[in-house]
Amino acid sequence: MSLVSAFVPIWILTAVGWAACRRGLLGEAAASALGRFVFHLAMPAALFLALSRMPLSGFAGRPLLAFGVSTAAVVGAGWVAAGRLFGRAPGERPIRGMAAGYVNSANLGIPIATQVLGDVSFLAEVVLVQVLVVTPVILVALDRHRDPEGRVRVRRIASLPVRNPVILASLLGVACSAAGLRPPSAAGASLTLLSGAAVPAALVALGASLHRTAPTRTEPAEPTELAVIAALKLVAQPVVAYAAGLALDLSASQLLAVVVCAGLPTAQNTFIFGQEYGVGEAVANRAVVLTTTLSLGTLAAAAALLG
């Protein structure tokens, strides 16, 4: 599979969603309904299956640390920049941080890792870190700011894994992996069918949301803000990962894996989370499209320089 072919399905499905919404085939509530389907059903099924089948031993400690440093630095930078540079309210900032540093490790990461790196072993560890560390932080922040008084309620935060299907499915998947359990065949087949809808439905929802007219949107995405997010995602994150990898004395192959994974574009989960919580939806969907388009060039450059 060529590097270009890894991106083509994303562009096609996003365009299909946009065209279907433009022609009125899906109705006015298409993006919202599809987004909720992905968030509450398809994405939890996909995460549960992926994590329940993922071994929890043999992690690549130093490469994963380098990737984690780049993620923390860039998510934090995007979060802070949203408030200090663009005056976004506290409840809007987590989505900006996520757009800047949460990589598309699934539908784009897998074919790109296969093409550029030759295997997906390190990418699997990246998925685990994002799902079990970064995602809960983002969702806890979003949940906090959904509170009318903006307070951190310990009881509400403690119950978040039960109330949030993404976190609950992730924890159950890790528990099944640790215990060596597998769902019954009928349940596993049903979950497999449901999980297969996560990526295409998310992309169609993304395309449908792009067709909405500007007056219906809150928190419009400014061109300067999008440029900053794209620069953080496609330039700053791989550069920080490279610097951290050098400091940790990674081998050439490990350094390539870390930089390529850090340079993946913004995950469409950012748009799904923004839509679910009603914040940052406009900037999220545009960041996904923009970084996905530009990353074809930046990833090819990184592979050529380090490969």
From TrEMBL:
UniProt organism field: Micromonospora auratinigra
Gene3D superfamilies linked to this entry = 1.20.1530.20
Keywords assigned? Cell membrane, Membrane, Transmembrane, Transmembrane helix, Transport
Query: Which top-level group of life is the source organism from?
Result: Bacteria
Q: Where are the transmembrane segments?
A: 29-51, 63-82, 122-142, 162-181, 187-206, 226-248, 254-274, 286-306
Q: Where in the cell is it found?
A: Cell membrane
- Protein's name in the database: AEC family transporter
Topology in the lipid bilayer is annotated as: Multi-pass membrane protein
UniProt-listed InterPro entries:
Mem_transp_PIN-like, Na+/solute_symporter_sf
Biological process, per Gene Ontology: transmembrane transport
Name the PANTHER family on file. AUXIN EFFLUX CARRIER FAMILY PROTEIN, TRANSPORTER AUXIN EFFLUX CARRIER EC FAMILY
| GO CC terms | plasma membrane
| Family assignment from sequence similarity | Belongs to the auxin efflux carrier (TC 2.A.69) family.
